[in-house]
Amino acid sequence: MAVPYWFCFILSLGFIYCYENVALHKPAWQQHVWPSKPYDVEWGAAKAVDGLYTDRSAGGTQCTQSGPSQTTATWRVDLGSMVSISHVNIYYRTENHPSPGAYYNQFAGFFLYVSNTTSKDDGHLCFHEIQTVDRTPVENQTISCSVHGRYVIYYNERRPGVTYPSYYSRDAYNELCEVEVHGCSDPTFYGENCDQPCPDKCQEKRCNISTGYCLGCIPGYQGLRCSQECDGGMYGAGCTQKCGSCLNNKQCHHVNGTCLSGCSSGYQGGHCKENCPSGYFGINCENSCTVYCGRNGSCDQTTGICDGGCEEGFIGPLCGTEELSSRVTSCTDDNTATIISIVVSIFIVLIGSIINFLMWKRNQTEYAKKGENCRSETRSAHNSGLNPRMQNWETVTNRTRMRNFTIIPNLPGKSKTSYLYCSYFHRTYSSIILKNHKNVPQNGGGKGQSSEIPSGCAIWMETIFKGKQLDDDGHLCFHEIQTVDRAPVENQTISCSVHGRYVIYHNERRPGVTYPSYYSRDAYNELCEVEVHVCDKQAYGLGCSSSCGNCSDGEPCHYQNGTCPRGCNAGVYGEKCQIPCQTGFYGKNCGHRCSENCEVTNRCSRFTGECDGGCKPGWKMPTCQRECDGGMYGAGCTQKCGSCLNNKQCHHVNGTCLIGCSSGYQGGHCKENCPSGYFGINCENSCTVYCGRNGSCDQTTGICDGGCEEGFIGPLCGTEELSSRITSCTDDNTATIISIVVSIFIVLIESIINFLMWKRNQTEYAKKGENCRSETRSAHNSGLNPRMQNWETVTNRTRMRNFTIIPNLPGKSKTSYLYCSYFHRT
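The structure assignment produced for this chain is given below.
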């Protein structure tokens, strides 16, 4: 009994690889089983995977043998699961004759496939045996096929109408003594003894059994071993998806495509493929359009430049970087406070001046009255003999401010009364009475005043079967109608050369219809066999001896004349679709012309239109009829466009940006960064003069690199210059402050002057008491009135209010002097 074994495969270079025969004793199947027993089992499909092939004759019952007279022969083995295959060994029936054996002609021209389904058409063609007439194939085959799969399929054919080499058998067979599939049962391992794990980043961890190279990569990786992350602005499965607009053109995440450093100006979202919403712009759409933009405040999503210009009073690309005229207007409005302050200051000065004037005037009036209130009256009983100087002095002093006077009584021989009145500062009167007689008053008075087929049967051929009842969609091939004296035969051969899918037998016994007497009463279908004999769909004519041409979509040609009812497939034309396209034409019915953009002009594959030698620069394979796109240009569309405005496609041939550059770039290809001090579309904008660090700013957004100079704020150090404007207006208030201070100073000086004047007058008034003193001189010191000496002492240092002079006249020779000074030292 055979057992599983390992096969050591010796390569030409001397390396030995040992792989398991993963096909041994696995389920097998063949298309045409030998039709008689016991050979249906003895030559069954399983014989090719039983591990026995020492007797390679039909009598040895170690080989499969398919049914005779077939045009195709298919055999397959199910490996049970996906395996990693290195190579396949095939040992064909030889009838134990020396090489090349007795039946090489029966396996000549075979095909070997590996598939993940039971259909060869879904699989990978590992080998097609094609030999020249002089050289026949060998009976033992070792076929290298490093793939992954579950089904290994052997196929051969001998199609009618096809001319094969002379040594080919007439019919197709599969006479396989053994098929060995060597590889690793676990597809995640490779190498000697299948002991090396495939790289982690291989898709499903599957790799080439010999090299370890991945058969595909998991999303985000590339390279033979999938060890390299996607780059060049690509990500995802096979690195075929394009990154969004990541900040500074940085690579997005190699697996999911998210932008790790944020979005370029004008974009938002994790993949940076969403445009900024209306009213926002800049990196990650973080900046708002200025409120001074026209057209509802909309602006360019990349640069922030206002779409509809600026509102009145604002200028600059962002309608705020140079708000000088607005600031002047605002400060002018603020000067109202200055004007008011000046008016108030003038008012203060005026009021102060008026008050001071009134006070001065009052004092003047009062002072003027002193001359009136200090007057001399002389009354005498005897008018004659008055000293003329006294009358003249009285008249003068009645209207004159008097500083001092001297009274010289002219006493002897005259009776005379003299009155002296003096008022000081307030209208509180004091009086001095000078009498020459007795009864002198001792008082002087006064008062002082604020927020989502039995007989009658019929045969139809239809292409569409629509259910239980007969319909009119089919072609009537035969209707059994016989005379009453002739009954129908039980075996019928009916000729019906048509195309169709459904063959329909129909009989009926309808009520009310008179049928021939030999008809049964009821309708039956008692069919032992129905055989439908057809030509291969690619054959036509008598005996299906002619081959169809290449009809459109693989449809069969007309069964009699071979014409194609719907035209030709790609690469041929004519009624039978057998004439190759002429040079310069391709496609169905050769209806398309090769592109002028082919490297060799108008030369291309007649089937696909793929240009011979590739495309001229700026055009895409395969037909070179589409311009480069997706941000690429030039030969083979391999060169990347620069930063064109709004991510528009650059010129497909030379790569120039037709509508200008995105923010931060300049030049014809928009690959040059803005020079220092400039930013925005085509680098047309200057950084504001209020940026710190020598006025440098971000080349894309214009945001100042080093912040703003003192007094300026906002991303551009000028879009919101409110603090600067306030500071400027505050500086303009200096005039207001100065005017107020000066006004106060003027009032203060006036007040000080008035105070000093008042103080001076006070002092002068105080001196009146000192300057009005009495001196007594007498030739005779003895006998002086003691009160007079005491009064002299008192009045010498005291402000006097009134005094009385009482002359002590009799018997004494005495001279009295009275001195009074008034207001001025004149």
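Interim note for the steering committee: The mean pLDDT is 75. Residues 324-373 form the longest helix (50 residues).
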